[in-house]
């Protein structure tokens, strides 16, 4: 299995913090967010490589980070998607497709957003995903508040944890169960990305692709417990700082 960390955004909602520093490298209790993520994959027998995809603006900064962590037990690779401004970014699905083709990935791929922060391990998620290798698995989290759910992709799960409905940022969510930026793509499902794009699917939001997979009956959901933060605003960043400090 390879791990792909999505870090090609420009973090404009966190300016000025992210004007010259990428969001995944912002510190939480004096440690970059990205380090919390890679530390969940220290078993080199399971993970052959951790790839971080970024943009040209932050490419050198991520390379410097990788060199600082050169003793990490799993190979760390940094890839630039070639974009230079927010206006020409590829989007999450575009970046996944770009890396799969550039790095010639032919094994299972775990994709995680570089601005996700959580306090649980992924063992049960990986086991469940492996048992359902004919489908893509998305990480789900109960945010508890219906009003807050409208900012995310909202899911409902049925028998055998199959996702039976998925709506990206609905105005009136039916549940508070939301999709994290955490996806397990078995190698036999990778060709679906090209099919989705060929059919006119948007590349800028992963949620649109996840909704398409749900419509194809090719999506399972695994619900996590514990603490989870989507560092998408100054407020969320400050809240995570306080939580992890304690």
Secondary structure elements and pairings:
Layout: E1 2-6, E2 27-28, E3 31-32, H1 33-38, E4 49-54, H2 59-68, E5 76-80, H3 92-102, E6 109-113, E7 116-118, H4 123-131, E8 136-142, H5 146-149, E9 153-157, E10 163-168, E11 177-185, H6 191-198, H7 206-215, E12 219-224, E13 228-230, H8 234-245
Parallel strand pairs: 1-4, 1-6, 4-5, 8-12
Antiparallel strand pairs: 2-3, 6-11, 7-13, 8-11, 9-10
Description:
This protein is α/β, with parallel strands linked by helices and 246 residues long. It has two domains: 1-119 and 227-246, Alpha-Beta Complex (Spore Coat Polysaccharide Biosynthesis Protein SpsA, Chain A); 134-180 and 198-226, no CATH class. Helix content is 28%, strand content 26%. The protein has eight helices and 13 strands. The protein has helices at residues 33-38, 59-68, 92-102, 123-131, 146-149, 191-198, 206-215, 234-245; strands spanning 2-6, 27-28, 31-32, 49-54, 76-80, 109-113, 116-118, 136-142, 153-157, 163-168, 177-185, 219-224, 228-230. The protein has a seven-stranded mixed sheet with strand order 5-4-1-6-11-8-12, with helices on both faces. It is globular and about 45 Å long. The model has no long low-confidence stretch (mean pLDDT 91).
């Amino acid at each position: 299995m390879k791990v792909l960390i999505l870090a090609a955004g420009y973090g404009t909602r966190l300016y000025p913090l992210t004007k010259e520093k990428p969001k995944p490298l912002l510190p939480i209790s004096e440690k970059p967010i990205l380090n919390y993520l890679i530390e969940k994959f220290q078993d080199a027998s399971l993970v052959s490589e951790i790839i971080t995809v970024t943009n040209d603006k932050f490419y050198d900064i991520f390379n410097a980070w990788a060199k600082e962590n050169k003793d990490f037990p799993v190979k760390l690779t940094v890839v630039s998607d070639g974009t230079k401004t927010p206006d020409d970014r590829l989007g999450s699905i575009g970046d996944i497709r770009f890396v799969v083709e550039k790095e010639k990935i032919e094994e299972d791929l775990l994709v995680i957003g570089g601005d996700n922060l959580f306090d649980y391990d992924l063992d049960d998620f990986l086991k469940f995903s492996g048992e359902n290798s004919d489908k893509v698995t998305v990480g789900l989290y109960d945010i508890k508040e219906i009003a807050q759910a409208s900012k995310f992709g909202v899911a409902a799960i049925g028998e055998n944890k199959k996702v039976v409905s998925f709506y990206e940022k609905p105005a009136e969510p039916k549940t508070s169960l939301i999709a994290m930026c955490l996806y397990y793509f078995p190698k036999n499902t990778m060709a679906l990305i090209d099919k989705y794009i060929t059919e006119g699917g948007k590349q800028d939001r992963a949620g649109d692709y996840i909704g398409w997979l749900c419509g194809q009956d090719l999506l399972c959901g695994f619900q996590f417990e514990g603490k989870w933060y989507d560092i998408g605003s100054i407020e969320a960043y400050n809240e995570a700082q306080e939580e992890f400090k304690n």
